[in-house]
Amino acid sequence: MLRVILIAGAGVALLASVGASVQAAAPETIIQARKAKYREIGKAFKSINDEVKKSAPDRGLIGSSASLIAGNLRQVGSLFPAGSGPSSGVRTKALPTIWTKWPEFARLNAAATGEAGKLVLASRGADVAAIAAQARSLGKACQACHQQFRDED
Amino acid sequence: MPIPPKAGPGPGRIAVWDVPVRIVHWAIVGLIAFSWYSAENHMMDWHRYSGFAILGLLIFRILWGFIGSSTARFSAFVRGPAEIRRYAGTLRKRAPGAGVGHNPVGALSVLALLLVIMVQVGTGLFAVDVDGIESGPLSERVSFDQGRLLAEVHEISFTVLQVLVVLHVFAILFYLLYKRDNLVGPMIVGGRKTGDVARGMTRAPRRNFVIAATVAAVTGWFISQGLHF
Ligand code: HEM
Ligand code: HEM
Given a cut of 90, is residue B20 above it in pLDDT? Predict the structure, then answer.
């Protein structure tokens, strides 16, 4: 039984690594995938700001949007394999410095993910001013990375 | 309640522009420059404050076009095509005009400038940036995609505004250098030395100023707060 599981596990791992190399071979797909993830993030952020502007915000919607952002930011961290920058020839705003300063990029991504997590927590309380302030902190965390690692328009 | 034309500021000057028109003009010039600077430098809080100030000034200027001093009124300078064509025919004459206030061709540029600034501020109120982070105070009333579209219109309209401002300044230079007519002086001090005294500006009563300024400030404030009552 144990052997079966080990073999199956090895098979899955092998498939996964093949999958990864297939992905790496097609920067086009990866870049499209990460842009789609980021666009979902952008739309979710607008829903948060829409609620924050209201006198009686829907805190449930803020919470679910913030956890979508946190989840997507976590996934997107793996969507920047080497070779998926502008050198791939695919249209992308990812700057090449992402790969030369990878630890900094990863740190900023973790920081933004953390801020999104804090917004999920804040949305559980009734303090609307605190929610608005945390939404601003999250926005600053996104912009900190964009100003360093994303091409302007 | 028209008040008889008065001699302008200083001896021998004919009044052309009242104080509110001059302050609104130069404040808008400064604020548009600042809006540009703050947008380029990602100072979006300042960009919004600056836009709200322009919004208030714009509402005031439009009200002033109905209840302001004679030269500020749209009824005084908006002319039909025949009048515009007639004036355009005299453009090549190298002499200062006798009229006080906007000439029929200049009026077109005034209206175009005011209109484009309205579009600029109006789209800004609903604009959303690509990240959904920065937005105008009314953006909660539009979808993400509509907000993005309006942000694109906001960018295009800024290009149009830049072109109009360049034309505006060239026209003023043309009057100064070719027609030997200094228009900038009156826009600063309010009056000019030559012209038809009988057609000098008639100042609006102070009460009208209080009304227009109050309506502009209150309306501008409510819009900047997202029109929540
Ligand atoms: C006459 C006044 C204004 C001028 C000259 C102006 C100019 C600009 C410029 C040049 C940009 C940069 C476009 C880009 O790089 O994408 C911009 C962006 C923006 N403006 Fe304004 N603006 C004005 C008024 C306003 C107002 C009143 C608001 C709202 C309160 C506003 C909200 C925005 C927003 C949210 C953006 C970001 C859009 C984006 O990044 O796509 N603007 N503006
Ligand atoms: C952002 C740039 C500018 C905008 C949007 C703008 C807009 C306007 C508007 C709307 C008017 C009509 C005034 C009214 O009836 O209230 C006007 C008039 C005038 N502006 Fe500007 N202006 C700008 C820059 C300038 C500059 C840089 C100068 C100086 C070189 C200038 C000089 C004048 C003068 C002299 C008039 C009176 C024209 C006349 O006698 O008919 N403007 N401007």
Answer: yes
The preferred substitution site among B14, B18, B25 for testing ligand 2, maximizing ligand atoms within 8 Å of CB, is B25
CA distances from A69 to A102, A131, B93, B130 (A): 21, 15, 66, 15
Q: Is A151 on the interface with B (CB under 8 A)?
A: no
Which ligand is the nearest neighbour of the Cα of B101? 2
Is the CB of B32 inside a 6 Å radius of any atom of ligand 1? yes
* Residue B78 belongs to a domain: yes
Is the pLDDT at B227 greater than 90, yes or no?
no
Q: Under 8 Å CB-to-CB from B77, ≥6 apart: which residues?
A: B71, B101, B102, B103, B104, B106, B107, B110
Q: Which of B74, B87, B172 to mutate to test the pocket of ligand 2 (most atoms within 8 A of CB)?
A: B172
Q: B131 to chain A nearest CA, in Å? A: 4
B202 and B4 in contact (C-beta within 8 Å)? yes
* Domain interval for residue B33: 13-224
Q: Is B177 on the interface with A (CB under 8 A)?
A: no
User: Measured in angstroms, how far is the CA atom of residue A94 from the centroid of ligand 2?
Assistant: 42
pLDDT at A6 over 60: no
Is residue B176 in some structural domain?
yes
Residues near B60 by Cβ (< 8 Å), separated by ≥ 6? B20, B24, B212, B213, B216
Which tokens hold the place of B14? 């004919």
Identify the pLDDT of residue B4: 44
Looking at the domain assignment, is residue B2 inside a domain? no
* Domain contains B67: yes
User: What's B60's domain CATH number?
Assistant: 1.20.950.20
pTM: 0.88
Class of domain A27-149: mainly alpha
Number of domains in chain B: 1
Q: What's the pLDDT band for B188 if we cut at 50, 70, 90?
A: very high
Which residue ranges make up each domain of chain A?
27-149
